[in-house]
């Protein structure tokens, strides 16, 4: 119906508060400023009419609110982390037993027998392991000692310090007397100076290998060490000396100087060359240290363009490499040198019993599907692990001459270091060592590049297994594992050195943290991500370096800062006394099939299995008769219920 003429409906304009744009509030920025006049501003929410602010105060308000919200989220996260930290079960922390204060910062440490060798400025010092008494020192260098090795030769110790210039020297320590054998790579011309990158001494100290690097090439020098000659020569002055005037201070023999025969090097297709083992010469004009103190040498050389470094191991006699009868040495003496170069897929095996007529080719080559990244040999010399760059591990039983298996690390994990554990068993809830060594059984720890820790086990023909001991920490980044050190005195125990400087003892069988170790609060680790420590292989103890942070001043001389070496003895802590008291299981208990049936030989296990089955035949016959009787009664019951 049309409206009457002349009448009009007045339209009223009411304010409409409509929401424009997306629902969420975008982050404030200059581009969000309104370009319209303030008169055209429409309030989006009627309740905020009194709270409206003109520009640019609205943007400032948004920034303040955003900053407040984000700050509150950070506060809540930190509070949740503190609450979780308080709720966590903290391990018992044990202090050190002895503190040895040093005048200079120690660079490195090594333990052999009852002596501690500490590399310092201008040389190294020797301390008694138990009373921390300084026995003597050798301070004849112009630079600091960067690394040091010590090898037990029985009643003697072979010491090999490397200074910051890369020069390595051999020392012979016998009855608290120190003898300098030779500087391996020291030259008069500084432009021709080579650097020692790595070194390795065979079990028993019969051979030594040094990886040297020059301006373009990297090569490996291998020496046969005349231990018997050394012992005879150092014993002679001991026999003639007066017993009442026993020398307590270290005596340094004059440096031996003798021309070492140069070795001819011939390149092969693989970029290798093998030098000949030369016979030692007698030093003219020297009556105290004849040339029998000098070892004999062989050289393996790699191309510097491709091979930048190498890893090498001395291997014991086995069926892996067939050698002539006349070349075989006594048992327990290394006879093979295994080498793999950086970026190489092959693991080369060289015999240490070579003649002048032998060629430079290796006696054996183990190819791998990917380049070998890390390798390690067990302390007993029976097992070898090759870790490739693709995360695959190959486990070898060197004594038997066959691989224990191949296993891959979890996806995204790559091997950083390998640490062998002395094989242990869990007996009545406690880790123990078998009284006699087991064959074809190994356990090792693998620290990955993502700082996760894994336990790899292998046994005979069974396939190897892998188990995660510690994941990469996500919430507690200060617990990132930087170093791992097995403790031979404690079965199945390993020390974990974290980024925050904490030292924890883990039981890998459970796995769980048993306890922790820390210096006094006034000290801290010098370099938490690369701690200076050493674990004794024969004594239940380890040493750790620390210094006073309060004494470090910008103008203070770093050489006068108080440094300390802390001695931790596992025998001094109540929680570990019981473990040290029962670390061995007898052979009779070990062969008990009720405790360890898997340790028996296959024939004996089959025999016992058949005997158990025969004994159970009578019990099974009785159970079978009872079962038939029940079936018969049930069938009679069903027949009675059927309708007639």
Which short descriptors sum up this protein?
644 residues; alpha+beta; 5-stranded mixed beta sheet; 5-stranded antiparallel beta sheet; 5 helices; globular
Low-confidence stretches: 1-17, 240-255, 257-294, 302-307, 549-556
Structural class: alpha+beta
Q: What is the molecular shape?
A: globular
User: How can the largest sheet be summarized?
Assistant: 5 strands, mixed
What number is the mean pLDDT?
Answer: 76
Number of helices: 5
The percentage of residues in β strands lies in: 25-35%
Number of DSSP strand runs: 37
Helix content: 10-25%
What is the topology, as strand order, of the major beta sheet? Answer: 1-33-32-31-30
Q: Report, as a whole number of angstroms, the end-to-end distance.
A: 92 Å
What is the CA-atom radius of gyration, in angstroms?
36 Å
